[in-house]
Amino acid sequence: MKSSSSILALFLCSLMILPSDHAIESPQYVVALLATDFEIRVYKNSTWMSAPVRGTSFEKSTKEGFHRLYQFIHGANLDSSEIDITSPVMTSIAQSSQGSFKSYCVSFYLPAKFQGAPPQPNPELNLKLDEQRAECVAVRKFSGFARDDNIDQEMEALVASLDNYTSSRIIKNNKNTFAVAQYNASYHLSRRLNEVWLKVGFPGCK
Ligand SMILES: *[C@@H]1O[C@H](CO)[C@@H](O)[C@H](O)[C@H]1NC(C)=O
Ligand SMILES: *[C@@H]1O[C@H](CO)[C@@H](O)[C@H](O)[C@H]1NC(C)=O
Ligand SMILES: *[C@@H]1O[C@H](CO)[C@@H](O)[C@H](O)[C@H]1NC(C)=O
């Protein structure tokens, strides 16, 4: 019951977001390396609002976290500010080395206008302000819907591409912590863009 109502809420809210006549803000980056099947990006410091979720499913956790963030951007904050939607919605996944325990955090990039002084979320939403330091990430794009049954494979494929890339030295972060970026509202069934992200060290990048 609870889960079907939050799925409905997500569906309803996704009908209202991403107006096509309106430029949607995203965090700015520079491409440090463009390979055939991955790229390395340098992101600047940026401020996000994040919803930690205790769960076992990527899809369910993303829906639950996004639902809390959706309320925040639609006025559930101490100034009752309306905040424009941005993309992507990020889900960070941390798992134990045996894979037995996972935790999720769903994050919303704050528009430039709110980067310095974001409105405080209503406390019951249990959101936290996330100041991301500048970082280098290796990115692999994929289409369709990001799901529990494909994100691990996409991540493995990214790691394989990085291991296979010998032209310069790429230092991978532990792959037990990675993130999935989703750029499109759920009602878009085709031409969808998602990415898996892994932090890396790379010459000329930090
Ligand atoms: C980025 O954030 C770090 C730590 O919060 C800070 O030391 C650094 O000055 C910031 N850099 C820029 C360019 O704002
Ligand atoms: C590894 O890299 C080589 C040379 O760039 C490429 O031809 C090959 O398809 C790559 N293999 C995989 C598994 O990515
Ligand atoms: C999905 O998002 C990407 C990145 O913003 C965009 O290029 C693409 O056109 C979007 N797809 C649809 C169906 O709107």
List key phrases describing it:
4 helices, binds 2-acetamido-2-deoxy-beta-D-glucopyranose, Multidrug-efflux Transporter 1 Regulator Bmrr, Chain A, single chain, 206 residues, alpha+beta, 10 strands
Notes on the structure:
This protein has 206 residues and is an alpha+beta fold. It has a single domain, classed as Regulatory factor, effector binding domain (Multidrug-efflux Transporter 1 Regulator Bmrr, Chain A, Alpha-Beta Barrel). Helix content is 24%, strand content 31%. It contains four helices and ten strands; from the N terminus they run αβββαββαββαβββ. Strands 1, 2, 3, 4, 5, 6, 7, 8, 9 and 10 form a ten-stranded antiparallel sheet that branches. A hairpin with a 6-residue loop joins strand 4 and strand 5. Helix 1 packs across helix 2. The protein is globular and about 50 Å long. One 2-acetamido-2-deoxy-beta-D-glucopyranose binds next to loops. One 2-acetamido-2-deoxy-beta-D-glucopyranose binds next to helix 4. This is SOUL heme-binding family protein. It comes from Eucalyptus globulus. InterPro entries: Reg_factor_effector_dom_sf, SOUL_heme-bd.
